[in-house]
Amino acid sequence: MLEHRPYFEPQSGAPENRIAEIAAEFALCMKRGDSPDSPAAQSAVERLKACCTDCGSNLPDGRGFPFDAEICGTGTSDYISDAVAFYKKGH
After folding, report:
1. Percentage helix, strand, coil for the chain under 3-state DSSP, each rounded to 5
2. What secondary structure does DSSP assign to 8-45, as a single string?
3. Alpha carbon 23 to chain centroid distance?
4. Cα 50 vs. chain centroid, distance in angstroms?
5. 71: which residues sit within 8 A by CB, 6+ positions away?
6. CA distance 32 to 19
7. How far apart are CA 7 and CA 4, in angstroms?
8. CB 3.0–4.6 Å: which of 15, 34, 76, 79 could bond 38 by disulfide?
9. Of 13, 9, 25, 86, whose CA–CA distance to 51 is shortest?
10. pTM (2 decimals)?
11. How far is the C-alpha of 22 from the C-alpha of 90, rounded, in Å?
């Protein structure tokens, strides 16, 4: 089960599908109590960065990140924003 794996397997497919999967990964990290600087959250940021590079856009800051709040839960955009900010500090 994904809950016990610190990293997520890369997925292929349309960018919209990958964005939805990445948002779900962030939501799972948040729901299980991982901090935004955890290896799993940072792995999701790296996947997000790769997806954005493929689409020709910059790494978003988490605000305005397209995800379904009903599925991912409230607070996900703040969590993504914190994880991206931590990633940018280190790079």
Report:
1. 60, 0, 40
2. -----S-HHHHHHHHHHHHHHHHHTT--TTSHHHHHHH
3. 5
4. 11
5. 24, 27
6. 20
7. 9
8. 34
9. 13
10. 0.72
11. 20
- Number of helices (H), then strands (E), in the chain: 4, 0
Cβ atoms within 10 A of the Cβ of 23, count? 22
**Cβ atoms within 10 Å of 34's Cβ, excluding its own:** 19
Regions of the chain short of the pLDDT cut 50: 1-6
Mapping DSSP onto H, E and C, the string for 36-86 reads CCCHHHHHHHHHHHHHHHHHCCCCCCCCCCCCCHHHHCCCHHHHHHHHHHH
What radius of gyration, in Å, describes the C-alpha atoms of the chain? 12
Q: What angle do CA 26, 11, 24 make, to 5 degrees?
A: 20
| Residue whose tokens read 């910059």 | 58
pLDDT recorded at residue 37: 94
